[in-house]
Specification:
About 45% of the residues lie in helices and about 5% in strands. The protein is an alpha/beta fold. It has one domain (about 10-290). Strands 1-2-6-5 form a four-stranded mixed β-sheet.
Length: about 300
C-alpha cells in the first residue's frame, strides 16, 4: 500500500509510553472458554468499550461512557492529564497518522457532496492502559471508537496480534483504522444512537443482529474510504485488496468460534461471519458508495 505519501492528520494524540500505570480492569475469561487473544479481537470488532463491558457481564444497552463527562480534559488511567506529543516517528504510528489524514479528506468530501460537514475524530495512540469517556481501558480491549468523546483509541501492538490471526500487512492495518472511522461516521449520521436505542428494547438475539449490521456497515465504510483514497492517491498496490479481505475473514465470528474450540452459533454472532465481513468490505471497495452500505436492510 502506498501510504507514505498520504497527508498526516493533525488530530493525533500519541500517548504511548506516557505511563498509564495502575492495575487495569483486565478481562475476565470464561463464557465458553474464549482465550484472551480471541476476546481482544471480538472486543475490537464490537465497536467500543460499552460493548466490551456487555461482553463480560454488564447489561446491553447501558453504555459505560455515561458516567464520565465527555467534556472533561482527557486523562491517562492514573488520573494524570494527557499531554499529547510530537507526530509519531515509528512506522505503525506514522501509518496510522497518514491513514487518518486520508480518511479525513475522503469523508469530508463525501459529507460535503451531501450538504453536510464532517467533523473528524481524534486518534489516541496509547500503551497498556488509557482513560476515555467510555471508561478505563487496557490494551486487551483492542482498538475502539468511543462515541462519548468521539475519539479512536489504538495500541499499535494490536497489529501484531491481527497478523498472527491471519491479517498481516499495511492494508490490513489501514482497514482497522478505516473500520473505527466508520463507527465515527455512524455517530455523526445518527446511526449509532438509533442502534443503541433499538438494542435497549430488544432481546439478546435481536441485539446481536443489530450489532452485526452496525459492524458490517463499518467494514463497508472502510472499503468506501479505500476506494476513494485509491482514486485520488493511487493507494492500492497489487495484492492489497486480497490482504484486506483476508484480514476481514480472519476475525469473522465463525472462524473465531472455531479457533476457540466452540460450536459455531450464528445467533450469537455480534460482528458477522468471515464471508459477511469479506462481502461488505468488498461492497465498499468496489462501489465507493456509502449508500450501498445499508447492512440493516440486508438483515
Amino acid at each position: 500500500m502506498r501510504w507514505r505519501d498520504l497527508r498526516r492528520s493533525d488530530n493525533v494524540d500519541d500517548e504511548r509510553g506516557a505511563g498509564g500505570g495502575g492495575g487495569g480492569i483486565g478481562l475476565p475469561i470464561g463464557r465458553g472458554g474464549i482465550g484472551l487473544v480471541v476476546v481482544l479481537i471480538i472486543a475490537y470488532f464490537l465497536g467500543g468499550p460499552d460493548l466490551v463491558m456487555s461482553l463480560i457481564g454488564n447489561s446491553a444497552g447501558a453504555p459505560t461512557h455515561s458516567a464520565v463527562d465527555p467534556n472533561a480534559p482527557p486523562r491517562l488511567s492514573n488520573g494524570a492529564p494527557r499531554q499529547g506529543g510530537a507526530a509519531p516517528s515509528d512506522e505503525a504510528g506514522d501509518l496510522a497518522t497518514r491513514v487518518l489524514g486520508s480518511t479525513e479528506d475522503v469523508w469530508s468530501a463525501i459529507f460535503a457532496e451531501n450538504g453536510r460537514r464532517y467533523t473528524p475524530p481524534t486518534l489516541v495512540l496509547f500503551s497498556d492502559e488509557i482513560q476515555s469517556a467510555c471508561g478505563n481501558n487496557t490494551s486487551a480491549t483492542g482498538p475502539f471508537y468511543c462515541p462519548g468523546d468521539q475519539r479512536l483509541y489504538l495500541d499499535t501492538t494490536f497489529f501484531g496480534e491481527l497478523a498472527r490471526l491471519g491479517g498481516p500487512g499495511d492494508f490490513a492495518q489501514a482497514y482497522v483504522i478505516g473500520h473505527e472511522v466508520g463507527h465515527h461516521v455512524q455517530k455523526l449520521l445518527g446511526t449509532e444512537a438509533k442502534v443503541r436505542s433499538a438494542q435497549a428494547r430488544s432481546d439478546e438475539r435481536d441485539r446481536n443482529r443489530l450489532q452485526v449490521a452496525m459492524e458490517l456497515q463499518a467494514d463497508c465504510y472502510a472499503g468506501v474510504w479505500a476506494f476513494h483514497a485509491n482514486k485520488t492517491s493511487a493507494l492500492l498496490e497489487p495484492g492489497d485488496v486480497e490482504e484486506g479481505l483476508r484480514a476481514a475473514a480472519a476475525i469473522g465470528d465463525d472462524r473465531l468460534q472455531r479457533n476457540a474450540g466452540r460450536r459455531v452459533s450464528p445467533d450469537s454472532f455480534t460482528h458477522g461471519s468471515s464471508a459477511d465481513r469479506e462481502h461488505w468490505l468488498d461492497v465498499g471497495l468496489t462501489s465507493g458508495d456509502a449508500s450501498a452500505c445499508d447492512t440493516f436492510a440486508a438483515m
